Amino acid sequence: MTTFHSLGLQPEILQAVEKLGFEKPTPIQEKSIPYLLENTGDLMALASTGTGKTAAFGLPVLQKINPAAKKIEALVLCPTRELCRQIHDDFQNFACNLNGFRQVAVYGGANIMSQIKELKSGAAVVVGTPGRVVDLIERKNLDISNVKYLVLDEADEMLNMGFKDDLDFILSNTPEERQTMLFSATMPAEVNRIAKRYMNNPEMLETSLANKSAENIEHSIYMVNASIRFDALRRIVDVNPDIYGIVFCRTRKETQQVADNLIKAGYNADSLHGDLSQAQRDSVMAKFRSRHLQILVATDVAARGLDVNDITHVINYNLPDELETYIHRSGRTARAGKKGESIALVTSRDKSSIKILERKIGKQFEIKRIPTGEEICDRQLIKLVDDLAESNVDATEVERYLPIITQKLENFSRDELITRFFATEFTRFSAFYKNAQDINLATSERRSREKEDRNDRYVRDDEGSKRGKKERNRGRGGRVDFDRFFVSLGKKDNLNPHRLMGFINEFPNLQGIAIGRVEIMKSFSFVEVDSNFSSTLVNTVNGQKFHGKPCVIEPASSIKPKKDRDRDRGRDRDRDRKRKR
Ligand code: AMP
User: Which residues pair with 484 in a beta bridge?
Assistant: First the structure.
């Protein structure tokens, strides 16, 4: 078995590692530590957070530098201030036995003057975010001309966050003889460009070994549509009573909505997104880290800095737009040798994305059925029993009440007492799921969705993008049968095609349905809708208000052509006139 000892680390560092409780090196450490200790060449590794990558570069770098140097010998660049602080803390632990070791963390959103002051005292290591590092270099407070070791941590994230120019600037201002180490969870073209331009024939660490934590992730999907998405989330959470998880959403608004709905329904949840102040975000993250919060609903950007080891579930409320993001999301579970589950709520539209993802992660998704109310109640009840059996009871606290308790309950048998206890404790779930339906999409609906899928149907997307129009046209040439409807609102009511589709899609039972040609006239409109949903459309939308005005919607076939209507109107007028006479 490989041990830290056998990797060539010096006693001061080995003691620190031991103090941290690391028993054996992770796969990436096993590979990178001996390589970096013995070589001066560059290194590139596919590794996400949770694989032990900080120690993989940190331990050898700390062994190679002069810890008491006043000029910067090692520069570590990372995308966020949270990660920056974390690497700084990890380095402090790794270097606890290195005499005279000094380092400075420099990141945006914090007072630059105090960072400058710290830099003036001299340091061997600087850990920083690219923007702040450039700022400090330009102010001539950070001298990187002596850097021997340069680490690019989470390189893909730095590029995603728009640090490309800053990285170019920093990399071209460090000595060419430096040893460059690049760590990235994914290897998009931009990361490869950086590697090609600034690295010298780097040693590549094997993916399968480096991404060992990925092996412990179980990937599952649940088929949903927009109207059951939230209910499916609830059920997944309920069937996993010990969940400690992150729910990823695409937008800040959706994040807030999902969190609000969970809180309203009694869950220990909170939101993390960019509309919150830094102080609010720090407080939510602290609550989550300390496990005072069970479910965190977050956007990808806001969750970037969050580093928590014991996450049991990552739930993709939607698949992310960039599929690479799925890998970052799922990498937040199954850390440090633990197991975890990455769940995605998907629609039949996501099929091709799922296929691409399966290739990327090298695993197949397990298609799971949304649990029924009965399954949830079973699971929750068992949890209640287990908790009761395992709880550490301090009998002394109730001792003095025992006589009165015994007296009041003496007429109940043991079985009656058990039944009463559980019936009382179990009300939340049993009441909620008492008459709950199976919400898995019916086979017919699934089939109809698959049919829509094949036809590249038009679906409103939140941006109302050009993609929509293109797909609509393709859809029209396909096999969706559309019915045409008359809508009693038009341009003068502020209606346009996008708003009309938005109006229709707002109703939960109409979300995502195929919409064909839309014609908006001055005071009325026509819209084509998948004929499978014709009666649902009429029953749902008729009489509903658009911008305060009631909308009448009916099959266009029942509307008489204009000339007929004019003729009718003429007849009515004649009749009226006759009557008046
Ligand atoms: P990282 O990928 O560097 O963010 O590390 C993820 C977590 O794993 C951190 O909490 C580390 O402290 C922990 N860790 C790193 N290496 C080991 C190891 N060899 N054994 C146990 N835990 C480790």
Answer: 528
